[in-house]
Specification:
Helix content is about 35%, strand content about 25%. The protein has two helices and three strands. Strands 1-2-3 form a three-stranded antiparallel beta sheet, with helices on one face. β2 and β3 form a beta hairpin.
């Protein structure tokens, strides 16, 4: 599922989202200029529904 994380991270970067800091464990904290909020992204993301939920938090449409 590492490819799912890479694809998600690429989509977030294309939307000008940025990695704010490392969170607890394998989580990262990202910031979205669209929603002006931070959200967490697990590096070991385990499913498409979670990836789509993260995109929604970032203000982006579903892609997985």
């Amino acid at each position: 599922m590492a490819t799912l994380y890479r694809a998600l991270a690429d989509m977030l970067r294309e939307a000008d989202c940025r990695l704010e800091r490392q969170g607890k464990g394998s989580h990262e904290v990202w910031y979205s200029p669209i929603t002006r909020r931070t959200f967490t992204v697990p590096a070991n993301i385990d499913g498409r529904p979670l990836a789509n939920a993260i995109l929604k938090q970032a203000g982006l449409p579903k892609a997985f």
